[in-house]
Amino acid sequence: MAQFSRIEVAQVMKETGLVPLFYHKDVEVSKKVLKACYDGGARLLEFTSRGDFAHEIFAALVKYAVAELPGMVLGVGSVTDAAAASLYMQLGANFIVTPVFREDIAIVCNRRKVMWSPGCGSLTEIARAEEMGCEVVKLFPGELYGPAFINGIKGPQPWTTIMPTGGVSPTKESLTEWITAGAVCVGMGSKLIKAEADGNFDLAKIESLTRECIEIIKDLKK
Known about the structure:
15% strand; 10 helices; single chain; four-stranded parallel β-sheet; alpha/beta; 222 residues
């Protein structure tokens, strides 16, 4: 079961400003990367469900986070149907992220008061998602829309909270463009957490880059 309500998760997203995205088939590697993000100040992580038996990896990460990383909010991304969302919520997912807007996922998440963030690409989709209780809309793929899209949406709908995923880089220039355009937080995957040429992860680099991104975002929001 989720440890955090959807309102609590949305608040952590707003306060932290960064949601790292990550998947790896090895449990121990995944724990180390999660710890590096946590030590860098991240208090959310989206585990992307893209591999065989990914739910087993996620279940182990939830148990690890509960025992060792207080306040860490774990969620699952790349969820494409209500059955998968229900499975991950049973395993402790605190939020569900989808590449598209699906009402069946909205229904099962709302029933458990678990936050869900659907991938939307139009004002109509965003409005419909909000009508169904969405707190934070995922702009996906972000690189196809750009910061100007968020700025345009915030005109008629200043209450809308948007998290772009894709097209966000761990640089001051990129983060400034997105945050000043009105993004409440940003999702960042391989540009933040990338394996080295030998397949291993530079954990110290992930930690420092995570910390740097969060500090930049906090400065931009002052």
